[in-house]
Design brief:
The structure is a homodimer.
Chain A (H helix, E strand, L loop, with lengths): L10 H21 L2 H4 L11 H21 L14 H18 L11 E4 L2 E4 H25 L11
Antiparallel strand pairs in A: 1-2
């Protein structure tokens, strides 16, 4: 008997999906000039891209912690990196943690209900939201880069 | 014996995920003034949001066709809607088709390799890409709206 899993995205695929997006976001962070990353906005009251990237870093870390432990403590948003090198360093540390720790998360965790700072939801919704929120803000970063006259990284490369 | 599917996202979850994003994108299209939708760009050479939304419509239609039939004919990109009402009408028709037709796609289709105009890839990569591309361009639309002085729809509402 062959069982075909009733799945679009397996946990292993999800790790590939997330890390691919995180690699692209890293290239977008890198593409910003240091002096613009935490200051430039083309459309106030929108935040500078650096602030968005810090949010993405914290949401990623919280999501890994939440899926691994079931605990979702709200990050101390104001405690994040304030320069490009520190941000990229934190980003890379989380990349390594995801690679090491996410494969240990059991599939049932994704169907279980989790309690996030912004509400209760199934694990898959929380997990996919972290990636979606990253794509959303990174897309905004593309416009910021274009407004600065900089060509963004290719979207379809991961 | 209880079998836990090794899944983050089931086909039914994927339909919910996609339709939720499409509902939000529809609100973003609606938020643009008619006279700006196909003309305004805050950062040339970026396209007006209306052109991006037409791309999203075509990619969505192609993805439904591809997952349903295994055939992925490239859309005739230039044949798309050129005004807001026609675009929203096409959008809504596709929403109804997704609701009716996507549940008929067997789970194994998502693991099978498909041949898209831009390369060969597993069905789940093609499917998730359609949604990711929509989130990416819609995020850009948020900056366009802010540059026009318009508050975009809430991102986390689907």
């Amino acid at each position: 008997m062959t069982l075909t899993a009733n799945t679009v995205l397996s946990p292993a695929d999800f790790l590939t999906h997330w890390q691919g997006h995180r690699a692209l976001t890293r290239r977008v962070i890198e593409a910003f000039p240091e002096e613009q990353l935490f200051t430039f906005t083309p459309a106030p009251p929108m935040r500078p891209f650096g602030e968005m990237a810090v949010e993405l870093y914290f949401v990623g870390e919280m999501t890994l912690t939440g899926l691994s432990t079931g605990q979702w403590p709200e990050p101390d948003w104001a405690s994040g990196p304030r320069d490009k090198a520190t941000l990229l360093g934190a980003w890379d540390t989380l990349t390594q943690r995801l690679e090491a720790e996410l494969p240990g998360v059991q599939a049932e965790v994704f169907s279980r209900v989790h309690h996030l700072p912004w509400g209760a939801m199934p694990g898959w919704v929380a997990a996919i939201y972290a990636v979606d929120n990253e794509i959303h803000h990174r897309g905004q970063g593309y416009v910021y880069l274009r407004a600065l006259g900089i060509e963004p990284p290719t979207f379809y490369e991961r």
